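Budget justification aside, the reviewers requested a transparent look at the raw inputs and outputs of the sequence design task funded under Objective 1. We therefore reproduce one unedited record. The lines immediately below are the structure tokens for a 531-residue chain.
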């Protein structure tokens, strides 16, 4: 099917010319599956995500049918209506209609909240062929008498599941009630929860159903990595990585609006041009920010998940998950912003102690652990100890104890455990190695500050090197860092795993009675937090 070209799908010359202009050579699977049925006037239920080419799949047949129907535009009336959950998506769809309809006489308007109504009312005065709208503003303008839906020939609901999530379902129902009975209806949704299924049953008449799996190969082109890092140190690490890695265009995802603002501020102070978008930013501001990001004037965009929805910018080299997402599927959406159109990309995630549960959910969804890059303490960045760090630390502590025991040797009070070393070549402190598993310690080297983790991917060696560069000295000898400013507290936050984890993670032969205070001091030591 992929070998069909656009012409064989039945598209008219004006559309084919626009596609040539866009540089599209082959239709995507959703375009192949949808365009002929839509040109024939069928209703459609599309289970597909952004990035599959679904906008062209519905825009091209809409433009063609509107052109071929020759129905005149009437004041305040729209011949087709596309309802989208976010302003960004609405604007993007409007731009796509502009591009695909460049060789036609199609007139468009796009209405969304957060900006003045007057230009939108003016745009509707003489009627349009294509109206793209977010639900709230659309109902508002209908209430004002500025928009009339009674002549809509084609209606498209895009990202219906997102509309449901955002509480727009009642608005959607109100809009449906205002549409003429005779019309062509399309419903797109990335997922099909039961509410969407019910809506589809009432809304669509004998629809064609198109299911497009998210493009898995794209994910495979993404180099994913993970840093365990304390919450208060994430911003320092982000600045460091943006400077060290070859970041040409990056999106940094923050879970909260406030967090996004703080990240942008940190980047600004570090001299990294960035823009920030979230729901509290005015629409004018968001549009400007997106334009600057697209044009490459600000190579970094800090965004919340909701605001970033529908953002379609090519050539994003890096995605940073500054916070782990609460929904594991969001991780896939986020990292899918990079590695588009066959390009490769890099996704870097930060995970603090409190986010380990969220990370587990993501890894469960992916079916694989995300390769960990061991962050070495540098310039104020302290890592969160991983389970392996903890085991290493336990081992080192036990080695030291043995060394102490040995040096006290004969003076040791009776009843103290005497280490079971072989008594030779065993004086090297940290590098001491137990001679046999009977020592009560695993047979492995003690932790070395520069030892790469076994699970760190080889391809990321340059990143590890960057973190080990002379500019990033081991901070064991450094004073307490500036981390944890976020909490408004200069004292480091506890980041060690809970004591239940400690016992679970500890090797079986470890003495279970080791006090958590000992463990804490070991963790403090490996994280450079010596008091
Ligand atoms: P969408 O899923 O509509 O957001 O589209 C995702 C991206 O794919 C957009 O950048 C489109 O411009 C692009 N695109 C859509 N159809 C094609 C095609 N047939 N060939 C190449 N790129 C396409």
């Amino acid at each position: 099917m992929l070998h069909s070209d656009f012409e064989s799908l039945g598209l008219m010359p004006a559309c084919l010319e626009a596609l040539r202009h866009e540089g599209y050579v082959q239709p995507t699977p959703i375009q192949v599956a949808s365009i002929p049925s839509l040109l024939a006037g069928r209703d459609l239920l599309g289970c597909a995500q952004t990035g599959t080419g679904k906008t062209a799949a519905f825009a091209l047949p809409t433009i063609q049918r509107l052109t071929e129907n020759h129905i005149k535009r009437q004041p305040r009336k729209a011949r087709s209506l596309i309802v989208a959950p976010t302003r960004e998506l609405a604007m993007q769809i409007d731009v796509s209609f502009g591009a695909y309809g460049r060789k036609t006489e199609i007139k468009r308007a796009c209405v969304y909240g957060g900006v003045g109504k007057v230009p939108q009312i003016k745009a509707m005065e003489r009627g349009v062929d294509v109206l793209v709208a977010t639900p709230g503003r659309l109902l508002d303008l209908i209430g004002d008498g500025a928009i009339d839906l009674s002549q809509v020939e084609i209606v498209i609901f895009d990202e219906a599941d997102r509309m449901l999530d955002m509480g727009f379902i009642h608005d959607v129902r109100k809009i449906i009630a205002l549409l003429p009975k005779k019309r062509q209806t399309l419903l797109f949704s990335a997922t099909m929860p039961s509410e969407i299924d019910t809506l589809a049953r009432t809304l669509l008449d004998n629809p064609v159903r198109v299911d497009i799996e998210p493009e898995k190969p794209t994910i495979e082109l993404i180099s994913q990595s993970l840093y365990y890092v304390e919450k208060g140190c994430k911003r320092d690490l982000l600045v460091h990585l943006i400077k060290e890695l070859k970041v040409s265009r990056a999106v940094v995802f923050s879970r909260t609006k406030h967090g996004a603002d703080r990240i942008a501020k940190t980047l600004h102070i570090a001299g990294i041009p960035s823009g920030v978008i979230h729901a509290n930013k005015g629409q004018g501001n968001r549009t400007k920010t997106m334009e600057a990001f697209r044009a490459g004037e600000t190579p970094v965009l800090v965004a919340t998940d909701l605001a970033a929805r529908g953002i379609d910018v090519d050539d994003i080299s890096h995605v940073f998950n500054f916070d782990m997402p609460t929904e594991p599927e969001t991780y896939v959406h986020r990292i899918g912003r990079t590695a588009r159109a066959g390009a490769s990309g890099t996704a870097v995630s930060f995970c603090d102690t409190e986010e380990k549960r969220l990370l587990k959910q993501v890894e469960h969804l992916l079916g694989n652990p995300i390769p960990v890059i061991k962050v070495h303490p540098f310039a104020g960045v302290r890592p969160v100890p991983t389970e392996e760090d903890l085991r290493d630390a336990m081992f080192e502590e036990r080695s030291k104890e043995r060394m102490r025991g040995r040096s006290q040797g004969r003076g040791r009070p009776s009843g103290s455990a005497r280490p079971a070393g072989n008594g030779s070549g065993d004086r090297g402190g940290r590098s001491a190695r137990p001679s046999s598993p009977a020592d009560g310690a695993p047979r492995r080297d003690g932790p070395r500050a520069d030892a790469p983790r076994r699970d760190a991917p080889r391809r990321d060696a340059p990143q590890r090197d960057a973190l080990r560069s002379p500019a990033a000295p081991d901070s064991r000898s450094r004073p307490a860092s500036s981390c944890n400013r976020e909490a408004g507290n200069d004292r480091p936050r506890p980041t060690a795993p809970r004591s239940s984890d400690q016992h679970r993670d500890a090797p079986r032969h470890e003495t279970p009675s080791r006090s958590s205070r000992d463990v804490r001091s070991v963790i403090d030591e490996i994280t450079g937090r010596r008091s």
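The chain has two domains: 7-211, 216-385. The first strand starts at residue 44 and ends at 47. Computational costs for records of this kind are itemized in the attached budget.
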